[in-house]
């Protein structure tokens, strides 16, 4: 599962995080009966959002003899429960459980098959979603009655965490594994996708078709999948294994631009792990209104619609590339070796998160991977994170709470430390050992430790105890002094957090422009002291230069040292640290500004060039005067469009009127990031030109960056002919507003929509608010969204009361009311 973390930067004051909850121990599920095989026959009543199902579930007692069976079955009407031979079984169905009395006492290794006929009614499911997976109905009918003009009709499922039992009875636990076969009867115009291989297709006399999918290997119930819709299927392959991309037909020409790296990824990961891709095919589908980011259903990954991109987005970089890698890597870590409980979720998600780094490092080089790692670290350090949570935690209020930046981001960063500590050969050999020991089994973090210890010969209890079974991270204050008589650097590392950590720490010492790397070992005490010899006066002492150690460090370096650090250190982290510090003094220090400008034109990595541009303070006359010609040159010579877009933003800050013609010229760029920057720049002095650019854009779904710029322009112009565009982007714009005046403009548009008769716009706005609210619930931003919805309901009710015969307004009141219920 790839959670899409949302970072809202305006109007947020983060609440105080609660300490880890030790009041509710969450054990692994007790195994009384084991799933062996699951056979399903399903058909769909699409307009009424129901599914008729038959299930043949083969089981055996795990160890002790048993004469009863308990199955999870949420939101169902149970019609019949028998043995496979037709013999009726007594059962009760309540609290989402079917409790069945078997016909006799069954012993270990004695198989039996239960038959259940049922109707799945996802609208009756009562369990709630979370910030990571914002709904938990299991089975989803998208635009089932064709009421939304620009949206296809689709059906898809979402099993994680325990929602597969919303569409078929099962033991919905991660420590269960079963093979499966599914007969899906659908309208003949649709294609289907499920786990495993499509074995047959049979056309029926009523205009439907029955597709038979079969999956012979074992996997957990939450990884079962069905997808139905009017998709184009773009075929690819890795060796002899079919690789397929299910996309809406509009995106068929671009499917290989979006997903085409998949065969190379499979090859890279197979070689890296020395474990070939373990499944018989790999398909990826893009679903509308998906409730999370993406999901690693075995052999049949589902992605949210944001994965679908046009060339204007792809030229700026495939924003979904890391997610594609993430879900693929789960097919080893998660699908093959599966966390035995949600407490151990990180053994699935940390590896998938770290695979993003591995792929970027392989394809683009270390700087690109390190930039991504920094984003992951920022998500942990500055996101919605409770640092008191253990990485593996057996105490939590709700299993959905495990899907956070501790499990994902911190987990991945910890693997990076393990890789450095063990070395690449031992690390990847250890992962191979872990996979082979635990293939098709349920696993936990201890299994990982044991495999890495067996390969490396090193004790890792100290590492796992503090990083996996502990919480927090080191918060360090580093100081150093020179003993010139002994030619020693005396370094003090003070740990200010509890508990204390032990860790290896790299320290680079630069003399005469060259570095020498030293590794020291910090003990789990408050103050660690180290002495490092030198020959000539050090120009720089660089602690944790590549940011391997997950920590916070306070240091006291001079501006001159940061200038030296940018110009001489090779590590991405050291360079951006220097740029950020130099940006703070660019107005008062001439050399700091010169170094920033140098980075813009000479740095080999485009991410650093873009960062340096973004850090220029164009409110200062000196910065304006010295940077203008450089930014003009960048705009005309830079090959990377995101860097061009950043230059346009800064030129607009320098003199938007002066560069108006330049912005109009570059608005014809194929790049949507450049086009959006031009629109926003023109809004300052030439709104008519900005609106003209928008009117010439014929792409209905150009992605978040361009849609935000378009929505911002039409809101400012009060052009409500594009009300649906406004409603889709209004909330993200509101929470990224740069001033109170800008925010007031967006609030005014919100009020206009809620006071008027705008059916689709109201639905878009409510969906946007609910989705974001579930990610920030409990924070001040969540309270703002809740208040917005309550005020919106009052405004819409007033409009409806003023026009009581208007059924559309009554429907809009209902839409807002239902949205508020989801937020409770």
UniProtKB/TrEMBL annotation:
Pfam families: Peptidase_M1, Peptidase_M1_N
Entry-linked InterPro entries: Aminopeptidase_N-like_N, Aminopeptidase_N-like_N_sf, ARM-like, ARM-type_fold, Peptidase_M1, Peptidase_M1_aminopeptidases, Peptidase_M1_dom, Peptidase_M4/M1_CTD_sf
Domain Peptidase M1 membrane alanine aminopeptidase: 262-467
UniProt-recorded name of the protein: Aminopeptidase N
Swiss-Prot/TrEMBL GO biological process terms: peptide catabolic process; proteolysis
Annotated family: Belongs to the peptidase M1 family.
GO cellular component, one term: membrane
UniProt keyword terms in alphabetical order: Aminopeptidase, Hydrolase, Metal-binding, Metalloprotease, Protease, Signal, Zinc
Cofactor(s) needed for function: Zn(2+)
Transmembrane domains' residue ranges: none
Segment forming the signal sequence: 1-19
UniProt superkingdom: Bacteria
Domain Aminopeptidase N-like N-terminal: 37-223
Catalytic activities: Release of an N-terminal amino acid, Xaa-|-Yaa- from a peptide, amide or arylamide. Xaa is preferably Ala, but may be most amino acids including Pro (slow action). When a terminal hydrophobic residue is followed by a prolyl residue, the two may be released as an intact Xaa-Pro dipeptide
EC number(s) from the headed UniProt entry: 3.4.11.2
MF terms in GO: alanyl aminopeptidase activity; metalloaminopeptidase activity; peptide binding; zinc ion binding
UniProt key word Signal: yes
């Amino acid at each position: 599962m790839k959670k899409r973390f949302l970072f809202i930067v305006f109007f947020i004051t983060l609440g105080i995080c609660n300490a880890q909850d030790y009041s509710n121990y969450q054990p692994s599920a007790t195994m009384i009966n084991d799933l062996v095989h699951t056979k399903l026959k399903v058909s769909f009543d699409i307009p009424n959002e129901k599914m008729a199902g038959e299930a043949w579930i083969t089981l055996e007692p795990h160890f002790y003899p048993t004469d009863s069976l308990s199955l999870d079955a949420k939101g169902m009407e149970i019609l019949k429960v028998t043995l496979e031979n037709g013999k009726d079984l007594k059962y009760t169905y309540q609290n989402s459980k079917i409790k069945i009395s078997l016909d006799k006492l069954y012993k270990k290794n004695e198989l039996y098959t239960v038959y259940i006929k049922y109707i799945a009614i996802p609208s009756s499911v009562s369990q709630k979603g979370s910030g990571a997976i914002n709904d938990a109905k299991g089975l989803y009918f998208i635009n089932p009655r064709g009421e939304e003009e620009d949206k296809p009709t689709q059906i898809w499922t979402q099993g994680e965490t325990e929602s597969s039992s919303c569409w078929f009875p099962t033991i919905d636990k991660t420590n269960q594994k079963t093979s499966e076969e599914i007969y899906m009867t659908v309208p003949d115009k649709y294609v289907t996708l499920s786990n495993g291989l499509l074995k047959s297709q049979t056309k029926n006399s009523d205009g439907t078709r029955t597709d038979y999918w079969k999956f012979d290997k074992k996997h957990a119930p939450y990884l079962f999948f069905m997808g139905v819709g009017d998709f184009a299927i773009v075929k690819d392959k890795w060796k002899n294994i079919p690789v397929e991309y299910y996309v809406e037909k509009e995106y068929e020409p671009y499917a290989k631009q979006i997903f085409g790296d998949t065969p190379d990824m499979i090859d890279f990961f197979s070689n890296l792990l020395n474990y070939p891709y373990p499944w018989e095919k790999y398909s990826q589908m893009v679903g509308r209104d998906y409730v999370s980011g993406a999901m690693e259903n075995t052999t049949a990954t589902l992605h949210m619609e944001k994965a679908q991109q046009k060339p204007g987005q792809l030229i700026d970089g495939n924003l979904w590339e890391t997610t594609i890698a993430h879900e693929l890597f789960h097919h080893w870590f998660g699908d093959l070796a599966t966390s035995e409980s949600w407490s151990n979720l990180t053994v699935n998600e940390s590896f998938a998160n770290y695979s993003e780094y591995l792929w970027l490092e392989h394809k683009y080089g270390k700087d690109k991977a390190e930039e991504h790692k920094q984003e992951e670290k920022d998500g942990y350090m500055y996101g919605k994170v409770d640092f008191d949570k253990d990485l593996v935690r057996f105490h939590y209020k709700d299993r959905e709470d495990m899907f956070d930046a501790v499990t994902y981001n911190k987990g991945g960063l910890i693997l990076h430390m393990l890789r450095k500590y063990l070395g690449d050969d031992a690390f990847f050999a250890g992962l191979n050992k872990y996979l082979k020991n635990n293939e098709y089994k349920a696993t936990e973090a201890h299994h990982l430790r044991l495999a890495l210890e067996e390969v490396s010969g090193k004790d890792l209890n100290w590492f796992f105890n503090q990083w996996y079974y502990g919480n927090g991270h080191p918060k360090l204050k580093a100081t150093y002094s020179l003993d010139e008589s002994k030619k020693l650097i005396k370094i003090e590392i003070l740990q200010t957090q509890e508990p204390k950590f032990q860790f290896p720490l790299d320290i680079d010492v630069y003399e005469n422009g060259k570095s020498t790397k030293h590794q020291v070992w910090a003990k789990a005490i408050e103050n660690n002291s180290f002495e490092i010899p030198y020959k000539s006066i050090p120009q720089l002492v660089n602690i944790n230069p590549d940011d391997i150690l997950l920590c916070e460090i306070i240091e006291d370096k001079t501006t001159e040292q940061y200038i030296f650090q940018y110009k001489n250190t090779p590590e991405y982290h050291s360079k951006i640290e220097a740029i950020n510090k130099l940006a703070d003094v660019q107005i008062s220090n001439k050399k700091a500004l010169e170094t920033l400008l140098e980075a813009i034109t000479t740095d080999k990595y485009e991410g650093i060039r873009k960062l340096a541009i973004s850090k220029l303070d164009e409110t200062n006359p000196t910065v304006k005067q010295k940077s203008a010609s450089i930014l003009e040159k960048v705009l005309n010579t830079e090959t990377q469009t995101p860097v061009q877009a950043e230059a346009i933003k800064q030129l607009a800050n320098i003199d938007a009127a002066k560069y108006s013609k330049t912005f109009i010229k570059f608005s014809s760029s194929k790049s949507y990031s450049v086009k959006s920057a031009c629109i926003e720049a023109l809004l300052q002095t030439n709104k008519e030109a900005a609106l003209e650019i928008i009117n010439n854009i014929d792409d209905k779904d150009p992605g978040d960056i361009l849609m935000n710029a378009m929505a911002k322009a039409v809101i400012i112009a009060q052009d409500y002919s594009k009300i649906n565009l406004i409603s889709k982007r209004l909330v993200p714009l509101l929470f990224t507003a740069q001033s109170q005046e800008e925010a007031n403009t967006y609030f005014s548009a919100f009020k206009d929509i809620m006071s008027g008769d705008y059916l689709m716009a109201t639905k878009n706005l409510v969906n946007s608010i609910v989705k974001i609210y579930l990610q920030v619930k409990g924070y001040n931003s969540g309270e703002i969204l809740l208040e917005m919805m309550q005020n919106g309901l009052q405004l819409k009710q007033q409009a409806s009361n003023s026009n009581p015969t208007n059924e559309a307004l009554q429907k809009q009141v209902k839409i807002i009311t239902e949205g508020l219920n989801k937020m409770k």
